[in-house]
């Protein structure tokens, strides 16, 4: 494999609840190489979202994250990075794209202000004017036709697809080497989904960035990821290249998952 | 059914709930003990009895909370006051509930009429309600039932607002749409689908209303309206004792004041706990 | 005469934002659903597909146009007649949990249509039928005593299906019945719906945004775009030779779970996302 950007070994997350401790993630290994999209797939409750929140240090105080290491190239072990420093890792070294773009955008700030706040938060000493220039370029880069109008507007004026483009632009403004996307197209229309995924994979191919892509959608994985990790009940049950895993799944659960996607051949069989 | 045997017994459930909501349990116990004690005694002294030779005594072994200006036992009077204060507060809250909920339902349509009702409520609530209550009670010649009317008048708009906001949200809910789609009549929509889902917030509001009523009632009797001496009430006791505060005789006003505080706190805690539980049972 | 006939249905909503343009959810939509068939209505958000599903059941009133069930114009019915007619036409919602009253037991939820439409039945007969309906959708009879919050999403949707079929309707609107469910659960619910359709001879109007799902379940597909049906065709024909440019865009946006089938998304010239 090429250079590894993120190397997670033995990640566990325990969550304390009133009904006892839940072992949400039970020792998983992940590696994301440069210029690669690693897909993490599983059904709700499999621990895939908890995994990335654990990596990003975004879990609440009732959760305990453990691991041999969470090594981010050029930075060091995230597990041993103090919470204060993690704030700088997020945004500058790892961009995060969440499922609901409107949850990521501040409803009372203009889009321009959010780009500027991002610069300020990371102490880049970029002036307001420079920040606007950068933002215009970023928005144009994610396929927004009229970036100036979007910059002057607010989140609620955007459609879901546009808002997600803005979030991706924000997440990549500081050129992090790794992008973590948690169900980035869930809830978006199919045509918009295709556009957003084309955009993300374009970023990877053209700029050699890396993406950790969490989704429940096997179509997204099959069409966009390079390698895939299948999760079930907090564990990895199968991993490998997308072609291997999706075409010839070895684990029973992966087989079941793939067979539950409606396939065209079946329909042909029925009709004859 | 086999299931019922596996389910924990009612007492066990109650115990678990009580452990989870300690403050509310404590508050509830306090209220129950206070009410029972005030109703059935025994009290160390007759609350109406006076002893001129033992006036303004500070708290001691015979008079736990001390005595007031005419030698009444502050402890006995504080407990005994709960009888009239709490029953008037409860009655006021109950009347507000019984009138406010149907009115609130009626005001929960999207039409113009319902908006007008809300405007009227705004206007009504802008009026200084304590003064209205004072006027009502005084003009009626200090009738106790007027105290109840005054309390309920203050609280009916709150029920209406609450009901309206809850019901307007529920009307949009999928299960209401499902009920409409299956052909449910309006009464069925209201009684089977709406009310059971607002019952929790109504209970919360009721607990808060009682707390509020206690404050209103005490304010009224503090101002010398409503319950008048020698019948003990917390408000009038505070009024009596207030004059003695400056001369260092704090106990005459302090203990009934603490009683009001604890009752309000207790009902607020109970409201919190109910709110917590109803919110949770949705999940 | 078709079982369901929609003629030139139009509906406009006032904009949610003050001063915004009104939303033309339906612009002269016509369709037919034959007894026992599944007509899928596919479209993206804002296409008006959900509005159509509700208009067909007269859960909302049209600005113009007509909906007929068995040749009876629903707009011509009195409220009482319309309520009675609802035994014949039912709906399953996208959000399984939100569509169940959280305060009612599963048994009471499923019994409700019978209490409304078959009040002559005794309570023990109703209980028997509720149990049968629950078993029909693959739930055990003692699910009746539980509350909606105690069930999984898939189980909740089974309850939604049981409630929809217990009054023995002939027509059911399925409003994205599987889109909030996990993949494996989704397949189970689709299989259940197909089975029930076979057994009871139901007609479905299947509202969806998902081509994969629609391909599997429908006899015919109507494609909606901005309040209009741009194309209606038998399922296989639509996939083999889509006529409208928007249909081709939708088809190109499908992501196959087989990595060997590479997709190439083709934007539609009228696409709002690109021109916005």
From TrEMBL, chain A:
Q: Which PROSITE patterns match?
A: ABC_TRANSPORTER_1, ABC_TRANSPORTER_2
Task: Check the record and name the SMART domains matching this protein.
Answer: AAA
The compartments listed are: Cell membrane
* Gene3D superfamilies linked: P-loop containing nucleotide triphosphate hydrolases
- Work out whether the entry's keyword set contains Cytoplasm: no
Where's it mainly located? membrane
Q: Domain (ABC transporter): give its ranges.
A: 6-258
Q: What is its membrane topology? A: Peripheral membrane protein
Which SUPFAM superfamilies does the annotation name?
P-loop containing nucleoside triphosphate hydrolases (SSF52540)
Q: Which domain of life is it from?
A: Bacteria
What are the record keywords, sorted? ATP-binding, Cell membrane, Membrane, Nucleotide-binding, Transport
Similarity remark = Belongs to the ABC transporter superfamily.
Name of the protein described by the UniProt record:
ABC transporter domain-containing protein
Provenance organism: Aeromicrobium alkaliterrae
UniProtKB/TrEMBL annotation, chain B:
Q: Which domain of life is it from?
A: Bacteria
Q: Which Gene3D superfamilies does the protein's record reference?
A: MetI-like
- Transmembrane regions listed in the UniProt entry: 23-40, 86-105, 198-228, 248-267
According to the entry, every stretch annotated as the ABC transmembrane type-1 domain falls at 82-271
- Record flagged with keyword Glycoprotein: no
The protein's matches in SUPFAM superfamilies, at most eight in alphabetical order, are given as:
MetI-like
Topology with regard to the membrane? Multi-pass membrane protein
Please state where this protein is localized: Cell membrane
Supply the alphabetized keyword list: Cell membrane, Membrane, Transmembrane, Transmembrane helix, Transport
Q: Which family does it belong to?
A: Belongs to the binding-protein-dependent transport system permease family.
Record protein name field:
ABC transporter permease
From TrEMBL, chain C:
- SMART domains the record matches: AAA
Which Pfam family name is an example for this entry?
ABC_tran
Read off the InterPro entries from this record.
AAA+_ATPase, ABC_transp_ATP-bind, ABC_transporter-like_ATP-bd, ABC_transporter-like_CS, P-loop_NTPase
Q: Specify the ABC transporter domain's residue ranges.
A: 4-251
Q: Which CDD domains match?
A: ABC_NikE_OppD_transporters
Residues making up the signal peptide according to the UniProt record: none
Key words, A-Z: ATP-binding, Nucleotide-binding, Transport
Q: Which SUPFAM superfamilies match?
A: P-loop containing nucleoside triphosphate hydrolases
User: Is Nucleotide-binding given among the entry's keywords?
Assistant: yes
Q: Quick check: keyword ATP-binding in the entry? A: yes
Q: Which domain of life is it from?
A: Bacteria
Instruction: Please report which protein family the annotation says this sequence is part of.
Output: Belongs to the ABC transporter superfamily.
Q: What is this protein called?
A: ABC transporter domain-containing protein
Can you name the source organism?
Answer: Aeromicrobium alkaliterrae
Starting at the broadest rank, the lineage of the source organism is:
Bacteria, Bacillati, Actinomycetota, Actinomycetes, Propionibacteriales
